[in-house]
């Protein structure tokens, strides 16, 4: 199920109002919408995108870098492959996929100083034909094909427990329309709801939210209540 601001706000309002949103709720739609945007930006650890304007890059206003981690890697065609967790903005030179970092083992931290090298589509075959640079000076590169990232080596074979973190270019959450699909993962959707409800004084929400689709728990009587 796609995640939109409208769905997040309405589900949060239902919980705040015990499953029934009155016509004139104390907390308005607009207030919760602002809170959702703030929490989502914080969760994505967004950073403002800074590009050298002298390079002539055309970056939409309001573009930010979102942080996505624990991305799986698989072996593919004697190389490695990973899927983008969300659809980043389409920018020239595939800059929507801004940077990719490895975590070589489950208990390790992400190696921010070992960023993989971006390669433009079709350039890997050209590089392999040049003896002086065919190993990219010992570095590992990647190409972006649609929603897939293809690496120049089989990093899954080299590091079986490897996970990836990606910085992807998205819009500031406050700039998305009510019905636009948000660059949010399913587990992040739950965190947003939980944190926004905390802002409005609802600390314990487990009784109201029973799964990631935010279905309100039914008032089912206990065995003791039935017997009485």
Secondary structure layout:
Elements: H1 5-16, H2 29-43, E1 47-48, E2 63-71, E3 74-76, E4 79-83, E5 97-103, E6 117-118, H3 123-128, E7 141-145, E8 148-151, H4 155-158, E9 163-171, H5 186-199, H6 223-227
Parallel strand pairs: 6-7
Antiparallel strand pairs: 1-2, 2-9, 3-4, 4-8, 5-9, 7-8
What does this protein look like?
There is one protein chain. With 228 residues, the protein is of the alpha+beta class. It folds into two domains: 5-46 and 173-227, no CATH class; 49-171, no CATH class. It is built from six helices and nine strands, in the order H-H-E-E-E-E-E-E-H-E-E-H-E-H-H. A five-stranded mixed beta sheet has the order 3-4-8-7-6. Helix 1 packs across helix 2 (29-43), helix 1 (5-16) packs across helix 5 and helix 2 (29-43) packs across helix 5 (186-199). The longest helix has 15 residues, at 29-43. The relative contact order is 0.21. The model is unreliable at 210-228 (pLDDT under 50).
In which range does the helix fraction lie?
A: 10-25%
- List the domain count as a whole number: 2
Strand residue content: 15-25%
Query: What's the alpha carbon Rg, rounded to whole Å?
Result: 22 Å
Q: Give the oligomeric state.
A: single chain
Supply the helix-strand structural class. alpha+beta
Our measurement of the CA-to-CA distance between the termini, rounded to an integer number of angstroms, reads 41 Å
Order of helix and strand elements from N to C terminus: HHEEEEEEHEEHEHH
**Mean model confidence by pLDDT:** 80
**What general outline do the C-alpha atoms trace?**
elongated
- What low-confidence regions span 5 or more consecutive residues with pLDDT below 50? 210-228
């Amino acid at each position: 199920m796609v995640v939109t601001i409208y769905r997040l706000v309405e589900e949060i309002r239902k919980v705040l109002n015990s499953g029934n949103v009155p016509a004139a709720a104390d907390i308005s739609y607009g207030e919760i919408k602002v809170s959702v945007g703030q929490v989502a930006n914080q969760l994505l650890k967004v950073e403002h995108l800074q590009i050298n304007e002298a390079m002539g890059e055309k970056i939409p206003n309001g573009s930010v870098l979102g942080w996505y981690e624990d991305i799986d890697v698989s072996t593919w065609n004697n190389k490695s492959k990973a899927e983008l967790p969300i659809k980043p903005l389409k920018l020239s030179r595939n800059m929507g996929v801004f940077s990719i970092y490895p975590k070589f083992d489950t208990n390790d931290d992400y190696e921010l100083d070992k960023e993989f090298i971006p390669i433009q589509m079709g350039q890997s075959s050209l590089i392999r034909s040049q003896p002086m640079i065919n190993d990219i000076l010992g570095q590992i590169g990647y190409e972006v094909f649609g929603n897939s990232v293809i690496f120049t080596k089989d990093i899954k074979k080299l590091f079986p427990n490897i996970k990836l973190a990606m910085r992807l270019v998205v819009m500031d959450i406050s700039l998305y329309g009510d019905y636009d699909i948000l660059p949010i993962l399913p587990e992040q959707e739950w965190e947003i709801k939980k944190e926004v409800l905390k802002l409005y004084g609802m600390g314990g929400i487990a009784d109201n939210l029973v799964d990631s689709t935010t279905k309100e728990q039914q008032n089912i009587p206990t065995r003791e209540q039935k017997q009485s």
